[in-house]
């Protein structure tokens, strides 16, 4: 075989050298160009094609929320000032919506929510009604029961009331993460017989962890507000909430005689809530306590609760009557501070509508706040509504992706 060689030629004045170049370098350079060309004409365009599909159909897809009467929420999920040019809302009931920066301020003006509640509680069962109350709110409660043995327990807790496994029939389980804080809440109890008013100060209220994971929330199936369709989402930022309702009176099972001890059920409640109990009172009972109208005509038990610190407050009704199911009737009059939406133009608000739409400026930090109004004296029936939040794509931004693909193909075709 011919051998590769190099030759040198000399003359008197000059030296000439002829060297035969190797082909490996040029071959490698060509291979690299092909690989880079393939990557830039297949992988990068694929990313530019998939990205807008992901953004439109997943990241900024339509979002459905389940919200209740008196809820005030701020919407983050599925919205972007870059990829959305409009934000539209639709609900199966009227609502108010405001587009603004930051959070609204509370005012001294208060709205009135009236609730009439009637419940039937078997022995050793409970039913609770919870509210998120701002400092300055007040609650007036009137109640009575048909038979002896019913009581009310008022506690302060978290967004999801910790029941220590009592609702599930488990043995009492104390939450080791509970940490006490010092607050002052004034609760006044008025009884019709002596007209004596007692003021109780509770300095040890217990808060749970404010950020329970979504997994834990979905496990609270007995909590009315958390029994949601998997396709529905929890609001990102809750500024105010309506009514939380739960209990085991409507899911009672027959227990053994030893489990039906009057003291064990109540003892479990005391141990569960311990230091964050604000009030614990027996209900006056009467055979004439048949409905809430009885409470309007005659003052039985009246509780005035003045709130001095924001939080979730729960009114727990339970019965310790071994012989009959006890009927309990109660009327709540709740007065809550309202939010102030000042300096907002007409284009950035819609009032008492079922559909509304807002324009979104590029790089704007404005968000939409949705408020489900509660009129003065309205009877709250724990209605829940479905709110649809839609991001309308900003075409000028999305068109960048397919145009970039064409430009890349044309650019690298000439390399």
Automatic annotation (TrEMBL):
<keyword id="KW-1133">Transmembrane helix</keyword>
<feature type="transmembrane region" description="Helical">
    <location>
        <begin position="395"/>
        <end position="414"/>
    </location>
</feature>
<keyword id="KW-0812">Transmembrane</keyword>
<feature type="transmembrane region" description="Helical">
    <location>
        <begin position="34"/>
        <end position="55"/>
    </location>
</feature>
<dbReference type="Pfam" id="PF16040">
    <property type="entry name" value="APD1-4_N"/>
</dbReference>
<keyword id="KW-0472">Membrane</keyword>
<feature type="domain" description="E3 ubiquitin-protein ligase APD1-4 N-terminal">
    <location>
        <begin position="92"/>
        <end position="159"/>
    </location>
</feature>
<dbReference type="Pfam" id="PF16041">
    <property type="entry name" value="APD1-4_M"/>
</dbReference>
<feature type="domain" description="E3 ubiquitin-protein ligase APD1-4 middle">
    <location>
        <begin position="303"/>
        <end position="412"/>
    </location>
</feature>
<dbReference type="InterPro" id="IPR032008">
    <property type="entry name" value="APD1-4_N"/>
</dbReference>
<protein>
    <submittedName>
        <fullName>Uncharacterized protein LOC113394534 isoform X1</fullName>
    </submittedName>
</protein>
<dbReference type="InterPro" id="IPR032010">
    <property type="entry name" value="APD1-4_M"/>
</dbReference>
